[in-house]
Specification:
Layout lengths: L1 E6 L6 H10 L3 E6 L10 E4 L20 H10 L3 E5 L1 H8 L6 E3 L7 E9 L15 E8 L3 E3 L2 H9 L3 E6 L18 E5 L5 E4 L17 H22 L1
Parallel strand pairs: 1-2, 1-3, 3-4, 4-11
Antiparallel strand pairs: 5-8, 6-7, 6-9, 9-10, 10-11
Length: 239
């Protein structure tokens, strides 16, 4: 399964995502931000980092990179697109996900492990998890405070589009467990169709025991498995 890993000037997690896809059994390929085509990619990852130095605001310039027209078109046709950390910010700026990522409540850069509660285990990105499962992975951001207006928040909650929520080790959602002030303790969401994911914590930094956690690997295994199954179904329908 072929996965395009988008690389912008300032990306620093593209190698991590590349390795994650490999471990999950996929075939990753770096795609430079000035390219205009995703080629034969069956899924796309927009990785973390500081695209274009986060000038203006995180993701604001990256959203206008030439490759983003292809990413937007791919997503609107139902293609799987995952944005991690800075990638989440880019997808919000591109209009593929609602809301915005504001400065952390502490006004400081946060870099440490956090716990997440899996709110849905039936998305293309969470099929290897269990609903309500508590997982651990790092976060690393200054602007991870998810914000949306009250109507958007209500729609996200009513439609079950919150995929990950910050929690404590027991799975309880508390203010103390929320590292950045995100509304409703939101750590990750999907679009209405469910094919676009945005999340602030880094599953790509929790894929091997040497990193302290392997809880992130299941996300990439879910992504690869979903794309493989979709491709197989499409081929059988053509045949």
């Amino acid at each position: 399964m072929k996965v395009a890993v988008i690389t912008f000037p300032g990306s620093n997690c593209d190698q991590d995502c590349h390795r994650s896809v490999e471990l999950a059994g996929g075939s990753p390929r770096f795609v430079w931000h000035r390219e205009r085509s995703l080629g034969d990619a069956e899924a796309v990852i927009v990785p973390g980092g500081f695209a274009h130095g986060d000038y203006l605001r995180p993701g604001a310039i990256a959203r206008f990179s030439p490759i983003m027209d292809a990413v937007i078109g791919f997503a609107r046709e139902g293609g799987l697109v995952a944005g991690i950390c800075n990638g989440f910010q880019v997808l919000c700026e591109a209009g593929l996900l609602p809301g915005a990522l504001l400065r952390n409540r502490s006004l400081r850069f946060q870099s440490h492990d956090c716990r997440l509660r899996v709110e849905r285990a039936d998305t293309p990105y969470t099929r290897r998890y269990g609903e309500g499962q508590v997982i651990r992975m790092p976060l690393s951001h200054a602007d991870g405070n998810y914000y949306a207006d009250s109507a958007t928040l209500a729609e996200l909650e009513a439609a079950g589009r919150v995929v990950f929520r910050y929690c404590d080790p027991l799975g309880d959602v508390t203010r103390e467990a929320n590292p950045n002030g995100s509304l409703n303790h939101i750590a990750g969401i999907v679009n209405a169709r469910g094919n676009v994911l945005g999340m602030m914590p880094h599953p790509d930094r929790a894929i091997e025991e040497v990193l302290g956690s392997v809880d992130g690997l299941a996300l990439f295994e879910s992504l690869v498995g979903t794309a493989v199954a979709a491709t197989a179904t499409a081929r059988s329908e053509v045949a």
